[in-house]
Amino acid sequence: MASDIWQPRISRYVDAELSEEEMRAMDAHLRECSSCAAEALRQMQLKHATKLAARRFSPSPQFRRRIADQVIADQVAARRPVIWRWGWAPLLAAAVMVLVVAGILLSRSAEQARSQQLLSELTDIHVANLAASTPVDVVSSDRHTVKPWFQGKVPFSFNLPELEGSPFTLVGGRLTYLDHEPGAHLIYNIGAHHISVFIFRDQPELSRVFSTRESSKDVLKFHVESWSAHELRYFVVGDASDQSIHELTSMWKKAGNS
Amino acid sequence: MPLFDSLYNFAGWLTGNREEAEDLVQETYLKALKGFSSFQQGTNFRAWIFRILRNAFLTSRTGLQAMRTVPLESDDEETAVVSATMDTPESILLGRASQEAIQAALEKLPVIFREVLLLCDVEEMSYQEISETVSIPIGTVMSRLYRARRAMREEL
């Protein structure tokens, strides 16, 4: 009879949808009730088997590239109407005179678009990560645990800042990719806010589109600070206050020079 | 591109073929880019972009046909209790069932059940996230999950 009360909750237990209190009560019940324990195990096995079998469709590299190119093209195209609103005739008349200048501007515009696209990609990773059920691959607030975890996973090493006495807490780290390049993604908490620190090798393209050694931008309400040092490119992304982002940036720069 | 592999897999299961899945994912990213201003910061990005994909699917020919499929049972039916004393334990069945058998069972599920099962078990979304993605109440999410799993058990 007692199982009649617990059985309907098993699905929610398996899906981790019970409250903490209910989870504890269910755990205690499962230790005593073999019938419910067997049912919970069966449901977990089915869930696990479904998860494995259902990862069936994966995109081809060509399709991935095509969509990435299209996304970039779409963002570049979004800037064009501003130019065309000037009217074609004056542009045509002036075209010869400003050909060289226009070439430079277009080149810069493309680089700005590329820069914006990469920053948007980073903010997307930051946002998507907040929604992920497992936001970090290595869970630790100890920098001496997190740093070694990246060894062999990213083609570079880096120093994490000492957080003692600061308002920041290290949540952990995960492997990430930007433009097919592996990088480190560190997640910090400050109050209710999350801040992501991304580190990649400073590839020629990154150096070109982020031509300045240091930059600070607002992308989709996120504050982003970026700098390069010792052939690495760093990004700090978050919706915390500019001051907090800057403070964490300063701590990372200091750690990078130590 | 965030969630690219997940969206593609989900699209594959909705449409059943690679070409349509590619069209669906392409449409999703273009709509997401154009409509990013409609995404409210602080809300669930994953539910938002999956909802775009699902809505794009619903307006496709395949989606319209799929949604006309007769559901297993009414959503309103109260979620029944799964018997804990089934004659054939799931563990034995699953032990025998190959990955192909599970995939075949998933294929046989009507889309409205398959999608909640995929979002829950593969994407590990919470009931709340699934509710936002599919635009149905949480009670209906639970009901559809229950029926999807029961159908999977029976099929396996």
Keywords, separated by commas or semicolons:
heterodimer, A: 258 residues, alpha+beta, Phosphorylase Kinase, domain 1, seven-stranded antiparallel β-sheet, 10 helices, 7 strands, 20% strand, B: 156 residues, mainly alpha, Rna Polymerase Sigma Factor, Chain: A, Arc Repressor Mutant, subunit A, 2 domains, 0% strand, globular
Instruction: Output the helix-strand order of chain A.
Output: HHHHHHHEHEEEHEEEH
Total discrete domains of chain B: 2
Question: What top-tier CATH class of the largest domain in chain B fits best?
Answer: Mainly Alpha
- What's the overall geometry of chain B? globular
Low-confidence stretches of chain A: 82-86
Nearest-integer average pLDDT of chain B? 80
Largest sheet entry of chain A: 7 strands, antiparallel
Rounded average pLDDT of chain A:
78
Assembly of the depicted chains: heterodimer
Tally of helical segments of chain A: 10
List the domain count of chain A as a whole number. 2
How many whole angstroms does the radius of gyration of chain A measure? 25 Å
How many helices of chain B? 9
Q: Gap between N and C termini of chain A, in Å?
A: 66 Å
Strand order of the largest sheet of chain A: 1-2-3-4-7-6-5
Structural class of chain A: alpha+beta
**How would you describe the shape of chain A?**
globular
